[in-house]
Amino acid sequence: MTEKERPLRDGDPRGYTPKHLAEKILQSRSALEGERKRVTVLFADVKSSMELAESVDGEEWHRILDGFFSVLADGVHRFEGTVNQYTGDGIMALFGAPIAHEDHAQRACFSALHLADALRRYSEELKRTRGLGLSVRIGLNSGEVVVGKIGDDLRMDYTAQGQVVGLAQRMEQLADPGKAYLTEHTAALVSGYFRLRALGAFTLKGVREPVPVFELEGVGALRTRLDVSRARGFSRFVGRADELATLEAALGRATLGQGQVVGVVADAGTGKSRLCFELAERCRARGVAVHEAHAVSHGKMIPFLPLLELLRSLFGVRDGDAPLDARRKIAGTVTLLDASLEGALPLLLDFLGYPDPERPAPALDPEARQRQLVGLVQRLVRARPAREPALLLVEDLHWLDGASETFVEALVESVAGTHALLVLNFRPEYHAPWMQRSWYQQLPLAPLGAAAIDELLGELLGRDASLGDLATRIKGRTAGNPFFIEEMVLALAESGPLEGVRGAYRLAGPLDALVLPATVEAVLAARIDRLGEREKQVLQAASVLGKEFGEPILRRVLPLAESDLASSLRALVSAELVYEQALYPVAEYAFKHPLTQEVA
Q1: Helices 305-315 and 323-337, interaxial angle, to 10°?
Q2: What does the pLDDT read at residue 450?
Q3: What's the pTM?
Q4: Dihedral sign computed on CA atoms, order 321, 325, 328, 333
């Protein structure tokens, strides 16, 4: 039997792991072994599989399970999860390991919803063609695991901490057919992003205290961390007057017909999205049209998500619009902007997901279709801002799918000479050729200054005498990252040391240590995991030496050639994880952020 022909249910990971993910795991496996990972575990199985197996022929059941496992594997890999093992009539999958994701719980929930739909369709097909009813249960739990040995066949062993895996399996066994249940640990990470129904606390075998259980009902109203912050109440916008003035100046030039492109670049949590939100709100208050799109971390495997969002915004199409209403909005806007584009309407409607049955899109090969769409997008952008100023905002380009890269470049090219300001934000690791254009300027965001941090902490904590030096401790640990500051205060309030309400907290008792919030750890761990194996090894060794470290000491503790060590350090500097403190008489470095050292 060839590799391609091997049935999925034989349990060999090489048969069901996508090539790009398999290569990534094998390249970094020596660095992964023994690491702690925060993950979300997903279990899915067929309810009453023994009874079903007895009701059909053995070969028939084998084929049914192969189809079932194929659906499961596709649904897990779609959101970059890893199928860790097959359980006979189901799977165990991991999100956040072996490669870390800062949104592992969200990916697992998206996967669970996708699997529920796909498996429902598969069950309906089985019922129609074979008269067999198949129902599936899904369970999820989040927590910490330790990565064990990873073999050449990709098999991975995980030592679970705090019954992480066992609780996920209990959720699956507890779930009603066709449902996905999750623990409070996962619920805390995805609340708002998904609609959850609290089912109460259940007494589970092997668990001392009753466990709160939630049913995953669907996608929620919130999409980004900024949405979560807005839902719980924005903290004061501080320390960004100069950056906002730069964006206002670019908007002023664009309003005069000198189209501008600004790239806002900073580490996660520094405030890129909040700065762009404040600009957008100012534009709306002045009657300037604002059109937004967001790349999402789980969307790298799904082409054109940000582009579709931006175009639907341009046409005023909303979720829930009937296809006919959407087509009317699109056709009406195209006619108003440029009547000569009417001939491209069938292609545009088909791309946006609202095909006109009376005017089907022409059959084109993928390259020709993309060329036409790129040209169409450019003409639409040039047509609209030529009549009125507009802000086009595309967020989180570091998560952009490959297919959308071409369209972002087209947007950059199209705004020159228009009344449009195109603002793009991304993390330091993102680079693109269009950054060399003369009408492009880059706006880096530094961590908040001391005065701004004090103002933010004063608003979040208050000034009660019992807080003592808590603000100073948080300030030193978070190094001016507003997201880290807010998450640390929130974690202290939720875990008990802080009593009261935001802005009026008091310390309930002695506080020995500041626990690193899981949300912050996940962001930093995912960034470290994007490094190559050698760079990751150097960063981890450096983190043991301290916040500051010298190259000679690293040479003594790491079995690397001098040239390889120097190359790795240059890569870490380029990634803005460490910075050079001195190059003579010996090279000395320091971690850019203290929490990066801690997580590494």
Answers
A1: 70
A2: 94
A3: 0.85
A4: negative
